[in-house]
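Notes from hallway chat w/ T.B., transcribed later so I don't forget. T.B. wanted the structure written out for a chain they're using in a teaching module, and asked if we could keep both sequence and structure tokens in one place. Agreed to drop them here.
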Amino acid sequence: MGEIMGDLFKDTQQKKKKDIRQDDFNKELQSIIGSPKKISLPEEEQSTKDVPIQKIDSKHFENLKNILNTTKEISVDSLGEVQKTVVAKYNQVTIYKLEGRPLLHYEVPVPKANTSEQEIINTIKEAATRIISLAPYKIRDEKQRWNVYYQKVMEIINSSPELKIPESMLSFYAESVVREMVGFGKIDLLLKDDLLEEIMIIGPNHPVYVFHRQYEMMTTNIVFYTDKEIQDIVGRIARYAGRRIDYSQPLLDARLPDGSRVNATLPPASVQGSTLTIRKFREEPYTVVDLISYKTFDSYVAGFLWTCVEGLSTKPANIVISGGTGSGKTTTLNVLCSLIPEYERIISIEDTSELNLPLKHWIRLESRPPGIEGTGEITLEMLTKNALRMRPDRIIVGEVRGAEADTLFTAMSTGHDGSMGTLHANNSDETLTRITNPPMNVPKMMLAGLDMIIVQNRLHDKKKGTIRRIVEISEVSGVIEDQIKTQRIFEWDPKRDKIYDTSIPSRVVKNISTYSGRTTQNVKDEIDNRAQFFDLLLEKNIRKKDDVAKYIAKYYES
């Protein structure tokens, strides 16, 4: 260990010599503040003429120093004096309104290291990488992973007196190294903020962006200065997920150990440098009561959908939820799945696992891309076909987009009632067009097995900001002469911000009435009862997943 640290320390000292030009430039620049003067580069790099430097005021020099000093963070307002007004503070987060800027600004304390400190951190990290044989991703528990690496790094530091680290700085260096090795470096605090929906790195020398549940899109005080910094984090995520990303395969879809969904790109796919988008996973998922309180839909629609999903234990509806990116399709799918009776056997199929259900008899299947040799791929189509052999009561497909659609709609048409999935489309007509055309190519006659299309959109309101609303609920009434017939039974009114019943009789309600032996009015009364039940849960502020599930189970027993 001592030999490794010694060699690395020598390498660090040699690297320092390469920085002489920058140091000399900074010193000489500082010496000319307030008076015009000429400066020249170090002798070995002189050009034939000296470079004239004009008078620079101290304010401009401080800004220039911030740009040159790439070992420290710069916020988006570092290039000038910007008035900041505090909008909110919580935990270690401060949110500012910046004068003249359209977006709010999100700040967290970011560990800073000067040049020499960063060199020591890099030296220790390189040694730790060689010495510690246990890969971080093999320790799933976050706290245990941190403790194991912290202990090992402290052992390395304590056995390396040549670094001459003061005792008061031991924990600083150990934590800095561990953060870079087992955490996600600069974005660690962002990942721990439950109020963030998405974290977006758009390339080097740009602020990291975040989407906040309350304050929406914001800039942050975190900046990555080199593409390598971003690629280090992307590579770490890929190893955690057991996936591959490199210049020959520059796209990555994966998830973090906590369930957060990750998309990354490398050059040449992303022209301006590597990118990383993390859609954070809510440890406590949204419930039906949450969506009612956010006005995604009202309690009557919730009661109606619950009745359709459960089918009064006789005829549950087959449902597709459509919408654009970020419209909340998966959240609504998760909420509807949580209304399925506990005794049913559910098999979910996803590209990246996002569903979080309070169900006991639930089997999760996840697709897998091919390995480095191009083998071992597991597609959604393969999983959907396999699910049919697993005696499912229902099949849930996280996102329908390819050949698996044919298998899913075959299942819907052959007795697997209550199957559900999501699909990218903006309305019911577009949904049907996508399903019946490449790459899905589902025959129109098979759509007779689809009962309902729920359309959910993400919208912008001047007063409320970003809102998510179910804007349409349509039913497939049949396929006649190769034409798919639909009827819209609920529609959203943007002026009143309310979804209303179109008064068109529901085919699904009629089917439930027929199969359950109840009258249509009796089924409608049950919908009203369930709506009142949700109103009561909202009034009592009962929102947590397990609590809502407990009361729904009690409702079934009553």
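Follow-up for T.B.: The longest strand covers residues 465-480. Might be a good example for the class.
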